[in-house]
Design brief:
mainly beta; five-stranded mixed beta barrel; about 130 residues
Length: about 130
Amino acid sequence: MKMVGINRVVLAGNLARDPEMKETSNGRFIATFPVAVNKHWRTRSGEAKKETTFFRIVVWNGTAELCARYLRKGGSVLVEGRLETRSYQNSEGKTQYITQVVGDQVTFLSKPAKAFESEAEDSPAII
């Protein structure tokens, strides 16, 4: 019997920092940025509570270039992608693990930092 697997993530939130873009040794572009997602609820006594979770987003190539160019801290985005865990050796030789969302599609929910010339101001930009 084959096992079926689904790895799909959809997040909507605000950038906690400007995207950081780098070029890999083989000429690919990668951009990373944290997205803050808020959860709101009320306690049994009626007290309003809020919890913020930060997700590390990674995007590649053309999407990376567009995100680095147009997204800024505080901007609202919708990110669709997959969850990925990777490991690396830190400076002390210990293995560290990072869980991140590899974004396949990023939708700008607020006006981009440098508005697209051909886009209407109120329509979201999907990349």
